[in-house]
Specification:
Layout: H1 2-35, H2 42-49, H3 53-60, H4 63-92, H5 98-115, H6 117-130, H7 136-145, H8 147-160, H9 166-185, H10 204-220
Helix pairs in contact: 1-2, 1-4, 1-6, 4-5, 4-6, 5-6, 5-10, 6-9, 9-10
């Protein structure tokens, strides 16, 4: 009887912990995506999540660890889908082209946009922020975990671009992926510089139509 009661209590506590963690992660990813890591206030975040700061430290240890947890939560399934999609493209064709790999990536972005509209924006905004210099430490920590993934994608691009040396492929892949992430993030950077809206970057299908040929042309240039 006593053991049963203990198990019931422990199970209830576990469920409460899971709900608390989920509330923190959902609120944190919104703040980090919109405001960035450095401008995010932990006091504001915990108030909106309806938890105290102690709960964040208990479950995640620090603001740094919370940011990394948010990144991994969103990036891991996205990366898995991209890899699977690229692998399928390669298996379907004897000679893979750069356009196939780019389209495989874009297809996942479009899938996220259709199925997880807000989630798609959060993923691309979070990743695009990692490209900034001030996020170098976080970028390096994630790179250590995804080094095998990056090397696999690099290998596929090398196969698709046999006329280029390895260093050139690395640079072009970096620029291509950065361009894709920023294009789908819809950050409207030009709004800060222009008096009017130049393009509608909110429509994922339209973004894909213009960005794919642009990126492919850059990758395949002599």
């Amino acid at each position: 009887m006593f053991q049963t009661l203990v198990l019931i209590v422990l199970n209830a506590m576990s469920q409460i912990d899971s709900l608390t963690i989920e509330k923190i992660l959902i609120t944190a990813e919104e703040h980090f995506a919109v405001h960035g890591y450095f401008a995010t206030s932990m006091r504001q975040l915990t108030r909106e999540a309806e938890v105290n700061v102690a709960a964040v430290h208990y479950h995640f240890g620090s603001k740094d660890s919370l940011f990394l947890a948010v990144l991994k939560r969103r990036i891991a399934p996205f990366v898995a889908m991209v890899l699977d999609n690229m692998q399928q493209k390669i298996e379907q064709k004897q000679l893979v082209k750069a356009e196939d790999l780019v389209q495989a990536f874009v297809d996942v972005c479009l899938f996220y946009a259709r199925e997880y509209e807000r989630g798609a924006v959060l993923v691309t905004r979070l990743v695009s922020r990692l490209m900034l210099d001030e996020y170098k430490t976080f970028r390096e920590q994630l790179a250590q975990e995804y080094v095998d993934v990056i090397e696999k994608i690099l290998h596929w691009f090398e196969q698709a671009l046999p006329h280029l040396d390895k260093e050139t492929v690395r640079w072009r892949m970096h620029i291509a992926l950065s361009t894709l992430f920023n294009s789908f993030a819809g950050n409207d950077v030009l709004k800060a510089l222009a008096r009017r809206e130049w393009v509608n970057a909110k429509n994922p299908e339209q973004v894909a139509r213009f960005v794919v040929p642009f990126v492919v042309a850059g990758l395949t240039a002599p």
